[in-house]
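Subject: for your reference before the review

Hello V.,

The reviewers asked for a structural picture of the protein, and I figured it would be easier to keep everything in one thread rather than splitting it across files. Below is the amino acid sequence we used in the manuscript, unchanged from the supplementary table.
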Amino acid sequence: MYIFFHLLTGIILGFVLSDLLHDRRWLIPCAIGSILPDLIDKPVGFLLFPDTIGYGRIHAHTLILSACLLLAGAAYWYWKRNPAVISMGVGVLSHQVLDQMWRQPVNWYYPLKGPFQGKMPGDALVTLLEGELGNPAEWILAGMVVAGGIAFLCRGRFPAGIQNWQGHRAGILGGVALLLCICAGVVIGMGLVRRPLPFVGWSGPEEYLFSGAVIGLASFLAWRWGRH
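And here is what came back from the structure prediction:
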């Protein structure tokens, strides 16, 4: 799965947890955790140890890492009432699920099944970057993330007419929720009938099913925001 879809998934999960648990501290750690495995493993595997490892799904893509973060985070949340660690664990686990790490059990269950497997050619990192930059869906998602970040940082500086959208809040967010729900249904349907969409770059029905579920979560979030 591509990096900006990972990030968007972490943001959506963070917002859902923040909304359900009434604590905005879940958002940023979950977003960071959703891209943390690639930020760690790809530089380590491809740049630091290209000859001995040469792969981008190693230590930070292991189930033991996400389990440790979730368990330690649960204890930290219980004792300190701080969700930062467990939220990051949720983000890391979401990354591993979207990468379907169970298809690489040696790496996901490391060290139980032996050393890491999956060495790739020396120019693999360049190939991955080209795939990322050549995916139009990723550019759209990147624009959405940047626009959302700017809107959040500048939310108190918009003209009064824009700030007074509250009167139409329910209708706008209801429409967004319906549109996202339709998109989720289309994406899941394409996965079920195994008919890939050419502009997203996803491969395999599982990626479509998981992506549809993420879009469905975004629809649920918009619906909840429209009610409050």
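For the response letter, the relevant points are probably these. The mean pLDDT is 83. The chain is about 70% helix and 0% strand.

Happy to draft the paragraph if you're swamped.

O.
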